[in-house]
Specification:
Layout: H1 2-18, H2 34-44, E1 48-56, E2 59-60, E3 69-72, E4 77-81, E5 86-95, E6 109-115, H3 119-122, E7 126-133, E8 137-143, E9 150-157
Length: 158
């Protein structure tokens, strides 16, 4: 019995130790370092993006953005274009911790998107939490404070 308890405790210790400290309870990466924020900013600026997945509160709405490419510009503007129509917005990456101290683990990094119209694009407007990013994919979520629903937005390089 004593051996079983020790084995269980050892397994739990290993499982706990293997969990990433970079993620919060929703699986987001809220404590990016300053260099990671700079990297993500550069990735967003690196080309044209498409939405490969958008889940809004209670249903998948990716098709609302079929045919649109999204360009994140260095001046903070965001342009969605389908070849005939341009939809203009803004974007930024912000860190609630104004310190550049990379050791601070209490920061909250947001990928902010703002469109004022049309309605489908207004749904993208939020201060998104960053789940993950690579040079070809940016995955974001937002947990609604009101209804507790989780929205998910995924951009992939075009």
């Amino acid at each position: 019995m004593k051996t079983s308890v020790l084995k269980f405790a050892f397994i739990m210790l290993i499982a706990f130790a293997s969990c990433s400290t970079d993620n919060n309870d929703e699986g987001t990466t809220d404590n990016l370092t300053a260099s990671q924020i700079t990297e993500l900013n550069g990735i967003a600026l690196s080309g044209d993006w498409v939405i490969t997945y958008f889940f809004d509160t209670d249903k998948e709405e990716t098709s609302n953005f079929n045919g649109y490419t999204f360009t994140f510009n260095a001046d903070g503007t965001l342009v969605a274009s389908n070849g005939t129509t341009d939809v203009n917005g803004t974007w930024s990456i912000t860190d609630s911790n104004s310190s550049d101290d990379d050791s601070n683990k209490d920061s909250d990094v947001d990928f902010n998107i703002l469109f004022t119209s049309p309605n489908n694009f207004e749904d993208l407007s939020d201060d998104w939490d960053i789940v993950s990013f690579t040079s070809t994919r940016i995955e974001l979520i937002d947990v609604s404070g009101g209804n507790g629903g989780t929205d998910k937005l995924v951009f992939e390089i075009n």
